[in-house]
Amino acid sequence: MSEYSLLLALNLDGAGNDPNDSALAALRAESAEFHGVSFSSDGLLDSVQRASFVAAKTQRIAVLPVIDALFTEPFHTATQLASLDIISHGRAGWILETQNDSVQADAVGRSILPEDQLSTEAADVVTTHRRLWDSWEDDAVIRDEATGRYLDATKLHYADVEGKNFSVKGPAITPRPPQGQLPIIAPAPLFTPDGLQHCRLNGADVVKVNAANLDELLAKAQTASSKGAVAIELDVYLDTAGDTGARRAAEQSVQRTPRAEFIGSVDELISFLKKFAEATANPEDQRRHLVHLHPGDLRIDASVLLDEVLPKLKHSNLLAPIGDTLRETFALPVAKNRFQEAS
Amino acid sequence: MSTQNQLRFGVFFQGVNSSTVWRSEKAGSQIDFASFRQIAQTAERGLFSAFFLGEGLRLREHLGGIHELDVAGRPDAQTMLAALAAVTSNIGLVATQNTTYNDPADLARRLSSLDLISEGRAAWNIVTTHNAWTGANFRRGGYLEHHERYSHAEDFVRTVRQIWDDSTVHHRGNHYNVDYTGTVPASAQHRPVLFQAGDSAEGRDFAARQTDVIFSAHVGLEDALEFRKDINARAAKVGRAENSVKIMPGAEFIVAETAAAAEEKYHWVREHQIGPHQALAYLEQFWGTRLENVDPYGPLPEFDPVVEQSSVTRGSGFQGAKSLELAAAWRAEAKEKGQNIIEFVRSRSHRADHTFTGSYDQIADRLAQYAELGAVDGFNITPWLIPTGLDDIVNHLVPRLQERGVYPQAYADTLRENLGLTIDETHEQRAIQRLKTVQEVS
What we know:
The complex is a heterodimer of chains A (343) and B (442). With 343 residues, chain A is of the alpha/beta class. Helices cover 33% and strands 18% of the residues of chain A. Chain A has helices at residues 19-31, 47-57, 74-87, 102-107, 118-134, 214-225, 245-251, 266-280, 300-314, 326-329; strands at residues 6-11, 36-39, 62-68, 94-97, 141-144, 149-151, 161-162, 167-168, 184-187, 206-209, 229-238, 260-264, 289-295. In chain A, the strands form 3 sheets. An 8-stranded parallel β-barrel of chain A has the order 1-2-3-4-9-10-11-13, surrounded by 7 helices. A two-stranded antiparallel sheet of chain A has the order 5-6. Chain B contains 15 helices and 15 strands. Chain B has a 10-stranded parallel beta sheet. In chain B, strands 4-3-13 form a 3-stranded antiparallel beta sheet. A two-stranded antiparallel sheet of chain B has the order 7-8. In chain B, helix 5 (149-166) runs parallel beside helix 6. The model of chain B has no long low-confidence stretch (mean pLDDT 91).
């Protein structure tokens, strides 16, 4: 099997409304050498703001906010994500979701979308982000005293997105982010012939796979990995000295998530991660695949992950090195600017 | 210590327009996080009440192309402020956010989040626009008419406040509906502080009804006193107590050890804010055409503007001026004052009466007079240099104001308290109730 292919992200939802708790958890994850931490807008703090707060307190770990693509303004979310990338010096990525529910829709005076339109809408939203992030070339700020020009207008471009349901003119109000293009992690159901995969170049970088159980998850991940980088999602309930993950998971059974559950010991989790690495390994490329871990209980399961799982994994050759930017960590190539002529 | 007759400072990290000098080795990055952190931390060292970020939702244009001559390229305000919350402890964090191209429920939620993240230091500087040019970046496009923009803005603010006060809102508007139940609990200051800058009669009434602080354009002492009187009268009509609407004019400070050194600095700043290219571009907005063959060191053009209304630099706030009348008046004014183009534009775009220029002691004395007369509650300072533009003020002016007893000696807990704002008790009760409800639900 290929070595150094796995990336691990720790979800920090449930950390409460004191951002210092999120920051402390992120700092622990950073020193345990997690590759990233993720945040949803969990009814308390905004996901991007929490990521931004944490980015200012950390040095190496990637910050991954979950943002809905349907009932948000693409121009705003593109600006927010570019800003997060600037603040984190290239450590930002976007976990894209399509939260097609009436609560979200009613809040902004819109209607939910027919299911068969989700992927085209998401593709339009992703295209908008991609084009806005490229709308400033990296060297658009010239500060040329002789001509009095701070900007070079020839290095700024209108995004000119004409989506099915909206259009965006551009250019961005924020310079191109340090990564050029932030890695986008988007759910597999959006990768249909009419959806993101159809416009692969403008599309997402990582396919997020969910399944009802672990076997199905591995099978789906294996299939998806033949086409590109994969992220799997897991709810994790781990055995501790005095208790079992199974007992705690049973207690939590009221709150079902769309994610597969991993219930078991530290060693069992590590062997599952090995299986995932083997299933997705491809000797022909250096692709990295992400395991997005959602601790069943942030206090208990995150601690077991940080104190026991990560130290054991360090000696397993399973984990990919942490790059200077999230793109590097994912082994994604340098993002070329679509508006810049090939030189 | 009494909060009466105390001045507060805010800092406005402008990020666009000609007020920020970039044609100098001393000018740092406009976008690196380090620049924002340095300004915010310097301001906090000087016990500033607030750090402001502006927002323009479309990049400025000039004569049909992207405007090249001034600093541009800003971060998202709330994303940056959330990061600054992590590296500061006391300073207020003010996000300029537009009522036309945001959704009230989303904005209410995000501002509440920033308020919690900063432990009661968040504020919203309310701005509104109607133009379809900005709308071209958004799902709704340009949906508002000019005459609707204040009524829409007020509907929007009421909706946001209702979410903050009551959690649940069912809003039926002319342009869209909102059904939403807030989930973010109230912060230590109950809700974000509201700032607003509109200056028309409509804008002033709006501020008197809805806002906590006016970011005003009335800097001169007489002007400031008159504005205070006017706002107090408007606030009284809607049942608000005298001086309950705080007033902080935007101003520039060019200070040094001696008056002569400050004067020298003043000329350096003006030369670096407006060069020959910027001066011609300023006139081009009103003439509606390129003036590349006009000598910036000569008189204003004798020929008339080619447009009736200036609208060519989009996003600069100058739209709608009557060009022919302006051109005639300006020619006469420049001639009378013996100014060439560059001198004229410098005097117009950065007015001397919006700038405090002098020695530290002179300016401290002048500001003490503002405090004694209650003309303003403070100043919102635009530094002309990033990221070191507050150093002189914090190191030399603030201590002199403290000696004169007109500047705080320490921070209180929240932005609301730092600004000397009182809490509306009805709102406080509702916010506490909301906090309880949210806790019961979760």
